[in-house]
């Protein structure tokens, strides 16, 4: 059983090796290999999840057997393993559900390069989840940024190039601020490993003279990750980035990349700074207000979007706001709500971004709402899966989105602050109403009789296994999070306990 302790390292090394290998393979072989090795990674991460639940304690893998503060460490607990399993399932479903568009959206000679970038991105995602070292987190954060730009620009149309450049500039700004925050914390503590750094910070926080410096350090680090993850008002890059990317890229960027940045922030708050120290800093209240603003502004912008991809992209900005509201509420309940929503939103958004191009391809390859009228009748499978994702985003019971909003309401009550409770309840009500308006309006549009008579060539078969299987998996995950939310919440609570 102890051999399982090597699996977190294997997920990173195997992903790096797979990136190099796919560059040398033909396009179809690169795609098939990527699907096989991602399936293997699901087994590896699933084994780690089982092991940590079974033993009840986390474990640390010391790289090269060098002790702190010189060595590097990988750490695995229930929460890290849970995130890794869900991330890998979504990654595999994104590749399976969107590979046909990869073949059509880009030059054939670039397809194997695309899978190379995806595999290197997977390595970065796994490293951010497992790492126990802040500087290692920065290194793989940069790799994640570069590969994210790569999967955008590889499509080689003018809009994706513009979106990639804008995305790169903002993300490099965020990376620079994160690095500056890490440097300041290193200067204060003399450590980069999370546990030794945490011990020093707890000791230093008792000195009032150190608190301003600590606040600035944590604030700079937080701003950097907020820019990279798209917190309001830094979310304006999302519509073009997600809207013009190939479906697999849009799914991965919205569901996994932005969530990995937030998960690194949560690890930093919980394992480096400490919940008690964070509670004494003004940063939480700022995140709560910005998160609430992002929920409302993102939803309003989604209402005014002129095509379905931009609507879903602005909706992502609103959902990022939810996660930051949970972090702003603080306490165990707030962090549980934030992490639960990371999972719920990742599953739902990947469904939506993999579905919208299939509605467009039976509507003259147009994403505009007027052209999409009747598209769910022309492609019933895509219409059905878009319906499930929409109901989850609105917050209909039995779906993940409803369970997530219940978690936030419980966290607001648990905060013990009447102003915070009032703000969160008001924002939840307004957001649910706005979500219902633009998603139901879209559903009515795609299920209405088409403006023009349908041709036989416009109607797609109802059973496309390459698309239906991954979408069914994501739908089952969505329903599981909605119907058995307590299971995921208990695992998250257990993982947060192991963080301490």
What can you see in these coordinates?
The structure is a single chain. The protein is an all-alpha fold. About 75% of the residues lie in helices and about 0% in strands. The protein has 20 helices and 2 strands. The chain has helices at about 5-25, 25-55, 80-105, 110-130, 135-155, 160-190, 195-205, 210-230, 240-245, 245-275, 275-280, 285-305, 310-330, 330-360, 375-380, 380-395, 400-415, 420-445, 465-485, 485-500, and strands at about 60-65, 70-75. It has a two-stranded antiparallel sheet with strand order 1-2. A hairpin with an 8-residue loop joins strand 1 and strand 2 (about 70-75). It is globular. The protein starts with 6 loop residues before the first helix and ends with a helix.
Summary?
The protein is an all-alpha fold.
Strand order of the largest sheet: 1-2
What is the 3D shape? globular
The major beta sheet can be summarized as:
2 strands, antiparallel
| Share of residues in strands | under 5%
Helical coverage, percent range: over 70%
- Radius of gyration of CA atoms, rounded to a whole number: 22 Å
What's the helix-strand series? HHEEHHHHHHHHHHHHHHHHHH
* Strand-pairing-aware structural class: mainly alpha
Number of helices: 20
The CA-CA distance between the termini, in Å, is 24 Å
Low-confidence stretches: none
Number of strands: 2
Tell me, rounded to a whole number, the average pLDDT. 87
């Amino acid at each position: 059983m102890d051999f399982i302790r090597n699996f977190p390292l294997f997920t990173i090394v195997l992903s790096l090796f797979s990136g190099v290998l796919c560059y040398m393979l033909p396009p179809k072989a690169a795609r098939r290999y990527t699907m096989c090795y991602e399936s293997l990674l699901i087994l590896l991460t699933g084994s780690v999840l089982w092991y940590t639940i079974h033993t009840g304690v986390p474990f640390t893998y010391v790289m090269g057997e060098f002790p702190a503060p010189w060595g590097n460490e990988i750490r695995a607990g229930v929460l890290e393993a849970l995130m890794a399993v869900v991330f890998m399932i979504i990654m595999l479903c994104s590749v399976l559900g969107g590979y046909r568009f990869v073949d059509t959206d880009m030059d054939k000679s670039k397809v194997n390069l695309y899978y190379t970038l995806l595999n290197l991105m997977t390595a970065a995602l796994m490293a951010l989840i497992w790492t126990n070292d802040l500087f290692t987190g920065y290194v793989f954060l940069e790799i994640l940024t570069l590969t994210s730009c790569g999967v955008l620009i590889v499509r080689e149309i003018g809009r994706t190039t513009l979106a990639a450049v804008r995305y790169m500039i903002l993300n490099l700004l965020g990376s620079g601020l994160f690095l500056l925050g890490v440097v300041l914390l290193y200067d204060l503590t003399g450590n980069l490993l999370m546990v030794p750094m945490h011990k020093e910070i707890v000791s230093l926080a008792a000195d009032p003279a150190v608190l301003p410096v600590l606040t600035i350090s944590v604030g700079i680090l937080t701003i950097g990750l907020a820019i990279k993850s798209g917190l309001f008002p830094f979310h304006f890059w999302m519509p073009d980035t997600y809207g013009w990317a190939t479906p697999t890229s849009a799914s991965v960027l919205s569901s996994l990349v932005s969530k990995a940045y937030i998960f690194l922030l949560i690890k930093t708050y919980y394992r480096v700074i400490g919940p008690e120290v964070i509670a004494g800093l003004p940063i939480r209240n700022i995140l709560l207000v910005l998160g609430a603003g992002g929920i409302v502004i993102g939803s309003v912008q989604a209402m005014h979007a002129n095509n379905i991809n931009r609507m879903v992209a602005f909706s992502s900005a609103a959902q990022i706001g939810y996660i930051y509201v949970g972090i702003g509420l603080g306490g165990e309940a707030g962090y549980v709500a934030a992490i639960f929503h990371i999972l719920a939103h990742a599953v739902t958004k990947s469904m939506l971004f993999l579905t919208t191009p299939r509605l467009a391809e039976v509507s003259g390859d147009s994403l505009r709402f007027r052209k999409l009228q009747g598209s769910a009748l022309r492609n019933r499978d895509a219409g059905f899966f878009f319906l499930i994702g929409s109901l989850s985003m609105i917050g209909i019971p039995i779906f993940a989105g409803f369970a997530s909003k219940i978690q936030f309401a419980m966290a607001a009550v648990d905060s013990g602050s009447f102003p915070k409770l009032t703000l969160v309840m008001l924002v939840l009500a307004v957001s649910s109403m706005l979500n219902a308006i633009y998603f139901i309006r879209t559903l009515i549009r795609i299920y209405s009789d088409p403006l023009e008579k349908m041709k036989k060539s416009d109607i797609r078969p109802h059973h496309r296994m390459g698309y239906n299987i991954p979408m069914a998996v994501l739908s089952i995950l969505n329903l599981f999070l909605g119907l058995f939310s307590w299971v995921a919440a208990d695992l998250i609570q257990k993982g947060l306990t192991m963080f301490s």
